[in-house]
Design goal:
The complex is a heterodimer of chains A (about 270) and B (about 240). Helix content of chain A is about 75%, strand content about 0%. With about 270 residues, chain A is mainly alpha-helical. In chain A, helix 3 runs parallel beside helix 6, helix 7 packs across helix 8 and helix 8 packs antiparallel against helix 10. The longest helix of chain A is centred in the C-terminal third of the chain and has 35 residues. Chain A is globular and about 75 Å long. With about 240 residues, chain B is mainly α. Chain B has a single domain, classed as MetI-like (MetI-like fold, Orthogonal Bundle), CATH 1.10.3720. Helix content of chain B is about 80%, strand content about 0%. Chain B contains twelve helices and no strands. In chain B, helix 5 crosses helix 7 and helix 11 runs antiparallel to helix 12. Classes of the chains: A mainly alpha (about 270), B mainly alpha (about 240). Chains A and B meet through helix 1, helix 2, helix 3, helix 4 and helix 5 of A and helix 1, helix 2, helix 3, helix 4 and helix 5 of B.
């Protein structure tokens, strides 16, 4: 009986939704409505296709092609290697770039601005677009993939470095410098301890992101499992497809859990 | 360090080929320096479609995640089994890359922006669902207890205590996801799921690098603009 007499009472001043919220809702609905035709949102079509989707799912539940496992293993390893390699490469490359792009360590204001903007540009495009560019430049295979991912990750990492260099406590730097230490000791004892938890967090985020990106860039021929995935889909090779999807899911989930565990221990 | 070397060898990466082929690379890059904007209007329309896909995808994921996240929040979920199942579902949605999901939907629904939008929405609802669930878990338990004490049902707790408490975080996360979705939407076209990606892949396929660079510029500028917008909006909210 209570459900029949229940009124909608929100935690706001007069119990109803705030005006700004309603306006926001209406604006979004308007934007959706005006673009509906542009994206061909067609409920009828969605309903009709659920049948097709279920049929697809049904076909997916077939006997997996066990003989494919070795190739799958190699390809997954390749994917992980691409992700790992480009993370390490960008770590190295982003150190100098980060120094140039930090206001307090950059040699000149113009250099600072140029490097900051350069880094933004490197980050702006999705990895696959860069992968397309590099594949056209150097051919198929994992090399353009590594180049593309390194490119984007360096842009991201260098920005993080630059920001952490900028917020470093100048008092800490002064006190370490006062003991007469050289530049390397300065970095190790004054800058790094403060920046460390952030860096670890960022590192895990980047690895996770790069593994996901590495699984996709194969789609355009840049090495890794993406190529196998799209091929098996196009050839309707469902037994293979299921194995590939499962392995992608497993890898991403394992990485996710690992990084959660690590983060709980370190932070 | 050893790992890096081993990996390089295993991947049979040949950096020498890059150095030897440097002249070719320079020639190749020169083609990018004269962007060809002859089909500008078409590109703009495609970019608009891309943005619309991102918008719809974000709204879809918002709706799905707002429904699923109270179930995935440990302190308000009606039953621990439901909590586990929904959490796993959200993880599953997050693990499958959006492009892969889009590929599957294109096989089922045909080409066009609709499968892309659905794939985007479902994949991102995994992210938003997890974010929102964690936000709901962080809300002061007193708020939930107060409502439980008045005999509120799960649905009422979710709607009047959980969502309103995390509104600011919802806005922040949604903007972040919208930003991300714009980037992904530009790529969805590569698998036929609508937007500017299809055009991009076509220009590369035909080796029309001048057009490709025009497209890349348009994509870059749009993404940078959306980045600034979302940063500004997030500052306004908090």
């Amino acid at each position: 009986m209570r459900a029949l007499t229940w009124k909608w009472h929100w935690p706001s001043r007069n119990g109803s939704l705030p005006l700004s919220f309603i306006i926001l809702l209406l604006t979004i609905l308007l934007m959706l409505g005006s673009t509906a035709s542009l994206v061909e949102v067609d409920l009828v079509r969605i309903f009709k296709s659920t049948g097709k989707l279920l049929g697809f799912a049904q076909q997916l539940i077939t006997i997996p092609e066990w003989s494919y496992l070795p190739t799958l293993g190699t390809k997954m390893l390749e994917t992980l290697e691409i992700a790992f390699l480009c993370t390490t490469l960008s770590l190295i490359l982003s150190l100098p770039l980060g120094l140039l792009a930090a206001r307090n360590s950059s040699p000149h204001l113009i250099v600072y601005h140029i490097s900051r903007n350069l880094l933004s540009l490197m980050r702006a495009l999705p990895e696959i677009v860069w992968a397309l560019v590099f594949v056209s430049a150097v051919g198929l295979g994992p090399l353009p993939g590594v180049m593309a991912l390194t490119f984007v990750t360096t842009g991201f990492m260098a920005k993080i470095f630059a920001e952490s260099i900028e917020v470093v406590n100048s008092k800490a730097i002064e006190s370490v410098a006062a003991t007469g230490s050289n530049w390397l000791q300065l970095v190790t004892f004054a800058i790094l301890p403060e920046a460390f938890p952030d860096l670890i967090s960022t590192f895990f985020y980047i690895i996770d992101h790069n593994v996901r990106a590495a699984t996709i860039i194969g789609l355009v021929g840049a090495g890794g499992i993406g190529y196998e995935l799209v091929m098996s889909l196009r050839l309707f090779n469902y037994s293979r497809l299921m194995l590939i999807m499962l392995s992608i899911y497993l890898i991403v989930t394992i990485l996710d859990r690992l990084s959660d565990q690590f983060r709980k221990r370190v932070i | 360090m050893v790992l890096t070397w081993l990996t390089t060898v295993n991947l049979e990466l040949s950096f020498q080929s890059v150095i030897w082929g440097f002249g070719d690379i320079i020639d190749y890059s020169k083609q990018y320096l004269s962007p060809n904007f002859s089909e500008f209007l078409k590109y703009v329309k495609l970019m608009g479609q891309t943005l619309a896909i991102a918008l719809w995808g974000t709204v879809l994921s918002l709706i799905v995640s707002l429904i699923l996240s109270p179930l995935a929040a440990k302190n308000i979920s009606p039953h621990p089994i439901i909590y586990q199942i929904v959490r796993e579902l959200l993880n599953f949605l997050r693990a499958i890359p959006d492009l892969v999901l889009a590929l599957i939907f294109v096989s089922a629904l045909g080409l066009g922006p609709l499968p892309g939008l659905l794939a985007l929405g479902l994949h991102t609802s995994g992210f938003l669902g997890k974010f929102f669930a964690e936000s709901m878990e962080r809300v002061k338990p007193g708020i939930y207890e107060a409502l439980k004490a008045t005999g509120a049902s799960f649905f009422q707790i979710a709607m009047f205590a959980a969502w309103p408490s995390i509104l600011q975080e919802v806005a922040g996360y949604t903007l972040y996801i919208f930003d991300r979705n714009v980037r992904v939407a530009t790529i969805l076209g590569l698998v036929g799921a609508g937007g500017i990606g299809l055009e991009l892949s076509a220009t590369f396929g035909f080796f029309r690098y001048d057009q490709a660079s025009a497209l890349i510029l348009i994509i870059m500028i749009t993404i940078i603009v959306i980045d600034y917008l979302s940063i500004w909006l997030r500052k306004r909210i908090s």
